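Input (structure):
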């Protein structure tokens, strides 16, 4: 876990966790390249996969909600193939986490993202429980 300024989200070595998604024809636009909504979906896939292990430690009614996502589109990419989604923990706050992501196609970074997730208990924001916090800080078990 580091401050945002220390992490280069375009560098594959920055990531502690990886997910892979197949590029579907539905992920492309009329120009034939991967469209912006597909990139957002890839970011979501990486984010959910990264948080899944930590969420095994949660109690009933506890969950994450997304508060903010910022995506920088860096390069055009086309099917066929797969994208690799790197995800890392950038900040672990009292009630929220910030995750960084890099989307790579053929070893080239095509997008980066920052996502802020807020922890809820029922419908109210809540402090991240110690067990979830420890699991997040320890990193993924891959």
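Output (sequence):
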């Amino acid at each position: 876990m580091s401050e945002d300024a220390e992490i280069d989200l375009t560098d594959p070595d920055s990531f502690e966790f990886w997910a892979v998604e197949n590029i579907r024809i539905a992920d492309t636009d009329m120009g034939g390249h991967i469209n912006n909504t597909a990139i957002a979906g890839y970011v979501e896939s990486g984010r959910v996969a990264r948080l899944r292990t930590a969420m095994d430690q949660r109690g009933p009614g506890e969950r994450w909600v997304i508060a903010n996502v910022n995506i920088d589109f860096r390069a055009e990419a086309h099917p066929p193939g797969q994208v690799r989604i790197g995800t890392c923990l950038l900040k672990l706050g009292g009630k929220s986490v910030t995750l960084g992501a890099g989307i790579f196609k053929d070893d080239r970074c095509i997008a980066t993202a920052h996502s802020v997730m807020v922890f809820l208990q029922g419908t109210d924001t809540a402090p991240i429980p110690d067990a979830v916090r420890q699991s997040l800080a320890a990193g993924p078990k891959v």
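Notes: Helices lie at 36-55, 130-138. The beta strands are 17-22, 62-73, 82-92, 96-105, 108-121, 124-125.
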